[in-house]
Every structure is written in C-alpha cells, then in structure tokens.
Prior knowledge:
Layout: E1 4-7, H1 8-11, H2 16-19, H3 22-25, E2 31-36, E3 39-44, E4 55-59, H4 64-73, E5 77-87, E6 90-98, H5 102-116, E7 120-123, E8 134-137, H6 148-156, H7 159-170, H8 176-185, H9 193-200, H10 208-217, E9 221-229, H11 230-240, E10 244-253, E11 256-262, H12 268-281, E12 289-293, H13 299-304, E13 307-311, H14 315-320, E14 323-325, H15 333-336
Helix pairs in contact: 6-7, 7-8
Amino acid sequence: MSVLKFSLQSINHQELQQVIPFSSQQEALPFVCIVSNNTLTLTPTEQQINAQTPELVVLGDLSIEKLLTIIQQCQLESLTLTAINFRQNIYSYRFSIACNDLTVARSTLANLALTEKFEAAIIENAPKLSAPGVLVMDMDSTTIKIECIDEIAMLAGVGEQVAEVTELAMQGELDFAQSLHQRVATLANAPESILADVAKNIPLMEGLEILINVLKQHNWRIGIASGGFTYFAEHLQQLLALDDVSANVLEITNGVLTGKVLGKVVDAQAKADCLLALQQKYQVPANQTVAMGDGANDLVMMNAANLGVAFHAKPIVLKQADCAINIHGLDYLLHWLA
Length: 338
C-alpha cells in the first residue's frame, strides 16, 4: 500500500471513517500518521507496536478537525493507526501514541470530550474483548436509569430529603455508609410493596443488554456491586443472567421496612472486594478486569480494575477515571476494549 496524503483544508470537516475507510485500509495497517504543512500523511509501516503503548481511541464519526484538536491540546506525539474495529454498527479507530504526561493528556481529553460532546479515550494496556474478562458495574444510575432509594423514598413520601442526601453522597461530600443509614432511616414503616412497585418498572440503561450479550459471547463474567439494595440487584441478576451481585439488605418485618440495613454496608471498599473476588473465582488475569460507575463510591472499585470507566459520571469520578462514556449507552464500552 502506498503513502496516502490529504490536504487538511479539503478533509477537515470530513469524518475519520470517510477519510480512512475500514474496508480499503484494514489490511494495510498500521499507518504512521504525520500532520505537517497543512497535510495529513499516512505511511504504512511494519514496525511492531508494543502492547503496553498507550492508545487514543476515537469513533469513526469524529471529524478530522476534532481529531487534530485532540492531538494538539493533549500534546500527543508519534501517532500510529493500529486498528479499526466495527462493533455494534459503529467504527472505532485505535492509535498508538506517545505523550509527556499521560495523566494530563487524559484529563485534557476528558474535559474536551465533555465540552465538545464526543466520545474518546486514552487507554493503557486495554483489556481484550476476545479474551475472557470480568466486568463489574455499579447499579443505580449505571446499569439502571434511576436511584432506587430515591424512587422508594418518593413512594414513601420522603423523596425530596432523601434525594438531597443521595446527591451529596454521589459527589463524595458525605461518608457513604453514614448517608445510607440516614436515608434508609426515613423509610421506616413504609410497606414492602413499594419495593415491588419500583422493581416492576425499573428502567434499564441504554446499551446494557447489548453489552452483556456481546461480552457473554466472548466468555466474560459480569457482576453488579451496588450501594443500593439486594431486592433490585437480585431482580436484575435473574433478568440479565448476571454472574454475581452484591448490595445492601433492607430489613423488613411483617411486610414493613424497619428503616435499617442488615449486615455490613456495601461501601467503596466492598465494591472493590467484589471485583477482586469475581476475578479470582473465575481465574481471570488482572489486566482483563473492568469496573464502571458514576459516583464517588465507585472510585475504589474502578482503581482496583485494570480499566476504570466513568459512565455519565460526577466530576469527581471523571477526574480520576481511566476513561469515560459521557453521551452514549453502556455498549460503547465495547469500543474501549482492544
């Protein structure tokens, strides 16, 4: 395959997948990418790329103009296009990169993607979709679109005060266990039937079922680790054939909530422990582990995984995550996997 040269003026507003189509270029990969003198040059290379080299991953509908903005603002160097994937009817492009400070580059990209409303990631040693792995997700506002305790509280007539405490806990401004006990206490004397009312209408997050189905096809194990409640986590386990769930147990006596939680609270460390237990149970390598969540209580779990993914997350989580999904559904995780 010969060297490809493009005038940036002519391709700036085109999508990446229009400039470098999947079908015609896949066999020629990798391409060294050089931007200079208002020209984009793609040169085939036989150079072997180290698997540990950081990658920039973007979707095929990203404009060349935005790709160049990413390269410039994140101060990325030595770009080599190594792979083009087609997953769930969407193309994604993987570039090996070099940069002086990966942490700064990730932070810059996170802010840029959020502001400009596109999905992109800078990832080191990405887990492989084709090899068995473990994914553990938060439940409330991650695998489902609601915060269950807020929904229960609304039916119990204490919705506003509980929602305020939930938000503070998610932002990391309150101790999680303390906030959980505080919120559950307001539910005392509410009928157990309100749990069933919430469960029967529980809205699944976009892309959840697709993500689970595809991962299971590749022998991944999938669990939920939640600061929410077993009533809903176990409902999801049956519905989605999950491998494991861990959550808090609401005390119920004579069909009435007592306002107490039984046993140890599933806090941030307990979530991380769930991930490690699932990894060990199924003998999955540590570099094949992924954790995904949206709140401060998910950070320890995300740090324990090889890849920590912020999903529609709070600022404190976006700041510390390895990568993020800000706009689309959970199935976009498939593009962050190698």
